[in-house]
Amino acid sequence: MRFSGIWRETRARTAVVGEAWVVNGRNGDVRADSGQYLAGMLGRVRLMINAQGLARTFQTSNYSTVEAVRGIDLHVAEGELVAFLGPNGAGKSTTLRMLTTLLPPTSGTATVAGFDIASDPGEVRRCIGYVGQGDGAGHMQRVRDELITQGRCYGIGAAESRHRADELLEQLQLTEQANQKVMTLSGGQKRRLDVALGLVHRPGLLFLDEPSTGLDPQNRANLWSHILRLREETGMTIFLTTHYLDEADAMAERVMVMDRGEVIADDTADGLKADLAARSDLAQPTLDDVFLDLTGRSLRDSFMPAVAAAA
Ligand SMILES: Nc1ncnc2c1ncn2[C@@H]1O[C@H](COP(=O)(O)OP(=O)(O)OP(=O)(O)O)[C@@H](O)[C@H]1O
Ligand SMILES: [Mg+2]
What is the distance in A from the centroid of ligand 1 to the CA of 130? Predict the structure, then answer.
């Protein structure tokens, strides 16, 4: 597996003991706050995602078992923008759904924004925003009402919810569509509304599952400029999936690649490309080259269930 920059350096000097990080192998450095911080070369870093052995298995209708996620460890520090890549069916959305408390893991543990996904799901949800791969918004409501309802669902007062809705409409350039029904929005407008819905309660951590899929290049660029600006303004941690590897290359400080339920690479995009250049005859590999090198060229939609149960 490929590990990156601060993570490669830090992992080389740290070990996990129980839930606490030990730095340089010295017990004196065990953190009392048990696993919510990573201490390393760059000082103390708060972990926004800290998962150990996270796994999810599904029983399918034909009595077989799919090991969608196979015991992965994830450590994402506060403020990072991580692109979580992988072929169709790799297990990305399943991972996000577990981290966002929408789906219980079959095994493993995780803290997200400092709270345990199993014992404290309400606190996790309060601290995170989630923009799923599918539709997030209801279709019959008007755009502004949808945002206000979302605010109220998070326990925000009526006046503050209205204020927040107007603020987000402006930030995501939806003010003109405020009174339109959601079903009448264009694809780009709809996706910007999905992102706005994920931001209503000012989360410190935002999960985005293929936020730009289906958008034209103008709308994609526009959506990313909104997301990057919000991140700059708020210092939000962002964990996103995308199949547009040029986007991941341009924006993410860190790229994780998942395949067949396992994390198979974790580095900067430049680190991954340099690694491939060093062991191939490609002078200037792209992230697409890296992706194909790591995950192969076979189609994953035809990937068969990992374990066939006795039917
Ligand atoms: N509810 C479910 N029941 C049965 N199998 C499921 C279920 N959800 C996901 N899977 C299976 O788990 C595997 C991982 O799916 P997942 O949606 O996590 O992949 P993904 O990496 O997000 O793919 P994509 O890039 O296509 O969105 C797939 O084989 C999928 O068919
Ligand atoms: Mg998915």
Answer: 17
Q: Is residue 10 part of a domain?
A: no
Length of the chain equals 311
Mean of pLDDT values over 16-25: 34
Q: Which bound ligand lies closest to the C-alpha atom of 84?
A: 1
State how many domains the chain has: 1
Which pLDDT tens digit goes with each residue over 189-215?
998 999 999 999 999 999 999 998 888
* Domain-embedded: residue 288: yes
User: What CATH number is given to the structural domain containing 180?
Assistant: 3.40.50.300
Taking CA atoms only, the protein residue closest to ligand 1 atom 8 is: 94
* 135 domain-assigned: yes
This prediction's pTM = 0.85
CA 227 to chain centre: 13
Q: Phi and psi (nearest 5°) for 9?
A: -65, -45
User: CA angle 8-11-14, nearest 5°?
Assistant: 155
What percentage of the chain carries pLDDT values higher than 70? 80
Q: Which domain holds residue 254?
A: 51-295
Q: Which ligand is nearest to the CA of 86?
A: 1
Residues 305 and 122: their CA atoms lie apart, in Å, by 33
